[in-house]
Amino acid sequence: VQLVESGGGLVLPGGSLRVSCVASGFAFGRHYMNWLRQAPGKGPEWVSSIRTSNGQTHYAAPVKGRFTISRDNAKNTLYLEMNSLKPEDTGLYYCARGGSILSTMREYDYRGQGTQVTVSS
User: Fold this and answer.
1) Are 19 and 82 contacting, i.e. CB atoms less than 8 angstroms apart?
2) In this predicted structure, what is the pLDDT of residue 53?
3) Cβ burial 45-82 (10 Å sphere, 16+ → b, else e)
4) Which residues contact 33 (CB under 8 A, 6 or more apart)?
5) How far apart are CA 2 and CA 24, in angstroms?
6) Sign of torsion, CA 49 108 91 41?
7) Which residues of the chain register pLDDT less than 50?
8) Which of 49, 89, 95, 109 is deepest in the core (most CB within 10 A)?
9) Which pLDDT belongs to residue 101?
C-alpha cells in the first residue's frame, strides 16, 4: 500500500489550493478515504472523509463549507479542494485509508507522508 500526496504550498489568506493523493497497492475504490492535518506542535486532526463509490462526504466543523473532498476511482486519486484558506489551516496534510464500511470509515491503517500547506501573508 502506498499513498503519495502532492499539491501543497504557500498561499495567501483567502486563497485556494488543491491537494491530491495517489493510491496504489490496494483496491482504492473499496475503501473510505480520509484527509487529516497536523499543525506544528499539535496532534493529528481529522478533516474530511469520503465514501467508496457514491461520494458521500463528511467534514470537520472548522472546514465545512470551505473544503471539498472528492475522488476519482479510475485514477486511484483522492483530492481536497481548499477555499477561503485561513492561517489556522496551516499544517501537514495527509491522506489515510479507512475501512470498507461506514463503521470503519475512520479506522486508519495506512497514511501518506503528507504535503505541507502554509497559509500566510
Assistant:
1) yes
2) 76
3) ebbbbbbbeeeeebbeeebeeebbbebebeebbbbbeb
4) 21, 23, 49, 50, 69, 71, 78, 95, 96, 97, 98
5) 5
6) positive
7) none
8) 95
9) 87
Residue 1 amino acid letter: V
CA distance 71 to 63: 18
Do the Cβ atoms of 37 and 45 come closer than 8 Å?
Answer: yes
Per-residue confidence (pLDDT) for residue 105, from 0 to 100: 86
3-state secondary structure of 106: coil
Contacts of 110-116 with CB under 8 Å at 24 or more apart are 110/1, 110/3, 111/3, 111/36, 112/2, 112/3, 112/4, 112/5, 112/21, 113/4, 113/5, 114/5, 114/38, 115/5, 115/6, 115/7, 115/8, 115/19, 116/8, 116/9, 116/91, 116/92
Amino acid of residue 107: E
Q: What are the pLDDT digits (tens) for 21-44?
A: 999 999 999 999 999 999 989 999
